[in-house]
Amino acid sequence: MNGSTGTAEKPITATAAAVCCPEEVSEEELFARLEEIIGEYRGKPGALIPVLQIAQTIFGYLPEQALKRIALGLGKSYSEVAGVVSFYSFFSTKPRGKHLIRVCLGTACYVRGGKQVLDALKKVLGIDVGDTTGDALFTLEVARCFGACGLAPAMCIDAEVFKRVRPTKIREILTRYRP
Ligand code: FES
């Protein structure tokens, strides 16, 4: 698996995908929306990634059942669809929390303490990378570079970037996002 589909498919920007909470609508309605999207894209080249991105926005993540319907609807194998999903880090097959925390582990951030920031977050949140807290408030992920290398280590919560983060400040930072 490497996400290569043999086409020129490229990810479009993944703005806000899966960051917001899904609306309070029935599962049936969500799948009806998905079918509509599949219908719009069916037969178009490079349809898979935009459909996956829209599906993730609809559900808040990509449930297995949605992937199966996308595969069927676009005439692709399930393994191809699942392969693309696992290749791109912005796709998630697990429900995400209200706030997405991403810690940069790019070179500049790593050598300036990014790993310690990540360890502090894991400890404070009580979760590992890729997991979501039990109260569904935070999901923890890692990233490669936010373009803030000069002010490393960096992390971001949703769209906000935190620079020169100190592990001792993690609790204080998270407090701002707690209800
Ligand atoms: S390496 Fe972390 S922001 Fe660039």
Plain-language structure description:
The protein has 179 residues and is of the alpha+beta class. Helix content is 41%, strand content 10%. The chain has helices at residues 27-41, 48-59, 64-74, 78-87, 107-125, 170-175, and strands spanning 99-104, 138-143, 155-157, 160-162. A four-stranded mixed beta sheet has the order 2-1-3-4, with helices on one face. Helix 1 (27-41) packs antiparallel against helix 2 and helix 1 (27-41) packs parallel to helix 3 (64-74). FE2/S2 (inorganic) cluster binds at residues 104, 106-109, 145-149, 152, 154.
In brief:
This protein has 179 residues and is an alpha+beta fold. It is built from 6 helices and 4 strands; from the N terminus they run ααααβαβββα. The protein binds FE2/S2 (inorganic) cluster.
Tags for this entry?
179 residues, alpha+beta, Glutaredoxin, 2 domains, four-stranded mixed sheet, binds FE2/S2 (inorganic) cluster
Indicate the radius of gyration in whole angstroms.
Answer: 18 Å
Please give the alpha-carbon distance between the first and last residues: 40 Å
Number of strands: 4
Fraction of residues in H or I helices: 40-55%
Overall form: elongated
Domain count, please report it: 2
Chain-wise SSE layout:
Layout: H1 27-41, H2 48-59, H3 64-74, H4 78-87, E1 99-104, H5 107-125, E2 138-143, E3 155-157, E4 160-162, H6 170-175
Parallel strand pairs: 1-2
Antiparallel strand pairs: 1-3, 3-4
This protein binds FE2/S2 (inorganic) cluster.
